[in-house]
Amino acid sequence: MTKKAVTLEIPELIQFLVEELHDLPDDRKPGNNTKYQVEDAVKAAFSVFFTWIATDPTNSGDRDYLIIGDLNAYAQEDPIRALESAGYTNLVGQFGGINAYSYVFDGQAGYLDHALANASLASQVTGVTEWHINADEPSVFDYDDNIVDPGENPSNPPLNPSALYQVNPYRTSDHDPVLIGLNLTTPQPFKLQLFHFSDNEGGISALDDAPRMSAVLNALKQQDIDNDGVAGFANTLTLASGDAYIPGLFFGASEQVFGAVGRGDIQILNNLGVQANAFGNHEFDQGTAVVRNLILPNGNYPGTNFPYLSSNLNFAPDTNLASLVTADGQEASTIANKIAKSTVITLSDGEKIGIVGATTPILRSISSPGNVGVSPANPDDLDALAAIIQASVDALLAANPGMNKVVLLAHMQQLSIEQALAERLRNVDIIVAGGSHTRLTDENDRLRAGDTFQGVYPIVKTNPEGKPVAVVNTDANYKYVGRLVLDFDSNGHIIPESYNPNISGAYATDAQGVTEVGGTGLEDPEIRAITNSLRGVINAQEGNFFGFTRVFLNGQRSGTGLDGVRQQETNLGNITADANLAEAKKTDANVVISLKNGGGIRNSIGSIIVPTGTEAVRVAPEEVPGVKPAGGISEVAIKNALSFNNSLSLTTVTASELKGILEYGLAASTNDPANSQGRFPQVGGMAFSFDLDDPAGSRIKSLVIKDENGTVIDVVVQNGAIVGDANRSFRMVTLSFLLDGGDGYTIPQRNRVNLLGSTPNFTGNATFAPDGTEQDAFAEYLRANFFNQPFLGEDVSREFDTRLQNLNFRSDEVLRSTRSGTAGIDNLVGTTGDDVLVGFQGRDTLTGLGGNDFFVYVSLSDRSDTITDFTVGSDKIVLTQLLNSLNYTGSNPIADGYITFTARGSSTVLNIDTDGFGTAASPLPLALINNVAVVVLNNLANFLF
């Protein structure tokens, strides 16, 4: 095979590729049975050719290609069909039809001379014809040496073609040239619009957010972004990158409405127009049989109207999913209800976009993928992961030689991994990330109430060839629609400078977001019907409530400040860990500690609202008139927060093992808000401090065991070292998921006891979940402790965390015992050591006894206490959270009038003035400090703020 390239100036650059395919096997003759040899040779030749042409060998930068010349093959032969399959148009056949010919042999006409244009050039061709100056050679004029003229030597006849034809340059070939008319246009960058989202793991909020997302999406799809006067934009994709559903309330309600779990989730994605989706981890949470049943149609249920993709999962060993696998690289619309590594989406103008999927390699440790193979074997080997994905990208491009744009749907759990892949992969232009819930926004995007900025949209990285790659991600649960509109150059590389923040970015799907994009009335009626049906099932459970809270229970995933359960202690993490501990003690009174993972908490309990003219606030669950009182924690809330409903198990660990287990829980964490680790521990019955700046494995500095009163009963680690016998043991309750190796934990199974029996029991006040599960434990704990008095433990930022003390944000106070009150009147007494006393609401009496004690006030509702034994010089009154709640930002609250003092005999009343020296408020008595005079108490050294 010979090939050469010519670039002509016409007035613009067009690439003419002249290809001669003369080197086919010599034995291609009738009866020689060489068909497969020839086909293989053709495939091999064109594979080399397409690889070469994709390199832009003339460096023209032009994407218009024309293949011309004698290809030594007729129109219906393999070489021409191979070119047509690659997206090239046979111009001679298109314009000449059945009468086209450029060659005559033995009285038979056909054409071996071809002109084939790729899609971008074909539209610029005005006409094609053959110039018939050579080919017309009827058989009567053949050179027949059997005829001997008079006087001619029959053994050596003269070569005298002039007797038949004129001898001139036109007769130098037996082929006719092909004439091509071109009306060339100036090449324009290719513009692509990509709508994307991930982690649509529906919870209660999805009942409204999913329909509103459809309204926002429909409104955006109608916008005339190319200013051609026609609504909409043809070159548009709608893609998702995993976690289409998650076990829980929303997921489970589909069983009653649609006959099987998760069907509502899938039908919502169908109606949003998803064209392809990557496998996330939550798809596998209930096993591969559920995955199969959700992908396949069944009766009125259509299954997935899109293919599921993953290049690093092997489905062949899994009997549930093996039969759903189809050939890679097919058109997406033709492989609904199927699984592949890759697919192609052909846009209306013929442009092809390649789509490849990839799934987190830690899948087996965080979900239940059955016999599905997961690669690479070492999930931390990003080079190996990139090589696997690269193989799928390369195969897809080789099978589609005219295609030069690829989108990777990567569900990696950590946005840093998608960014690392962008720097390792070739010929990938856009990566749609998934699993991290990272909220990327640009300067023109509005955040929903309570949300914070987590990164710039899009992130642009550089691949190994120096080409730009866009990495995009949006928050989960239908909260935002991601929209990326970018231009591509003629070689299929994105042009980052074409990004317009007025068009692209993350679009909020709250009510305001619908209005902002003109989406009123554009809600998809089928999606609304789906969520309304699910709402009916869910609301029936809302009236079944078990306890009360006056505060927002924080189950936010990640972020800054107060958030979230994968990065710091939260009040929901605390109360659910305590609930598990209380449940375990019913079986074994020797259980003293509780461990769970932050990733098992899926939602908060309460609401984030924005009162008119103010900032977002977090509030306790609202009243549902006639159904549930304000602050009530219902079955719905419990199921929504603890969607997995993990079972509980007991085990025994040594002091050394306990430190190692907790070190593992912290090993991958950093102080980066975007780094949210599902393994991050939430605990009960213990407290520890840690320094994330230190190497993994040596981060824990202090670790203590505490009783139910908050008293330290055992110091396990001090100054980073084990204290006492490293082999002394503690009975622990944890999630069966973690004990079985979930999230990568390795926990000894000494004297393991599973609290969920082989035959589930449903006893006690909460019978909606089996005994021995997280949901049941939490419901029973609420009923026993917070039905008559509400929970008051307001969530705090890392600066004030006491169980999980991050030393980048606060000092180490783990060795202090803690006493916490209730909403009623409490008498809290510390120990002779260092204590923390938090009275909360009610007229409490606080006595520290000996040591350096902290008396903590969280809000103004904690006032009217008596501190009986405040010791100047050693004890502190902690007002940090209280002053923060008043938006005080000064450095001297006494001088600024926020702290005032009133003498009462030999004692002092400590007052708080909510506006300092302002006139809008009067001082409120916070606490009576017994036997401490005003002149002594009036000193900043007595306070922390």
UniProtKB/TrEMBL annotation:
<dbReference type="Pfam" id="PF02872">
    <property type="entry name" value="5_nucleotid_C"/>
</dbReference>
<dbReference type="GO" id="GO:0005509">
    <property type="term" value="F:calcium ion binding"/>
</dbReference>
<dbReference type="InterPro" id="IPR008334">
    <property type="entry name" value="5'-Nucleotdase_C"/>
</dbReference>
<dbReference type="GO" id="GO:0008768">
    <property type="term" value="F:UDP-sugar diphosphatase activity"/>
</dbReference>
<dbReference type="InterPro" id="IPR011049">
    <property type="entry name" value="Serralysin-like_metalloprot_C"/>
</dbReference>
<dbReference type="InterPro" id="IPR029052">
    <property type="entry name" value="Metallo-depent_PP-like"/>
</dbReference>
<dbReference type="GO" id="GO:0005615">
    <property type="term" value="C:extracellular space"/>
</dbReference>
<dbReference type="InterPro" id="IPR036691">
    <property type="entry name" value="Endo/exonu/phosph_ase_sf"/>
</dbReference>
<dbReference type="GO" id="GO:0030288">
    <property type="term" value="C:outer membrane-bounded periplasmic space"/>
</dbReference>
<protein>
    <submittedName>
        <fullName>Trifunctional nucleotide phosphoesterase protein YfkN</fullName>
    </submittedName>
</protein>
<dbReference type="InterPro" id="IPR036907">
    <property type="entry name" value="5'-Nucleotdase_C_sf"/>
</dbReference>
<dbReference type="InterPro" id="IPR001343">
    <property type="entry name" value="Hemolysn_Ca-bd"/>
</dbReference>
<dbReference type="GO" id="GO:0009166">
    <property type="term" value="P:nucleotide catabolic process"/>
</dbReference>
<dbReference type="GO" id="GO:0008253">
    <property type="term" value="F:5'-nucleotidase activity"/>
</dbReference>
<dbReference type="Pfam" id="PF00353">
    <property type="entry name" value="HemolysinCabind"/>
</dbReference>
<feature type="domain" description="5'-Nucleotidase C-terminal">
    <location>
        <begin position="563"/>
        <end position="747"/>
    </location>
</feature>
<dbReference type="InterPro" id="IPR006179">
    <property type="entry name" value="5_nucleotidase/apyrase"/>
</dbReference>
<dbReference type="InterPro" id="IPR019960">
    <property type="entry name" value="T1SS_VCA0849"/>
</dbReference>
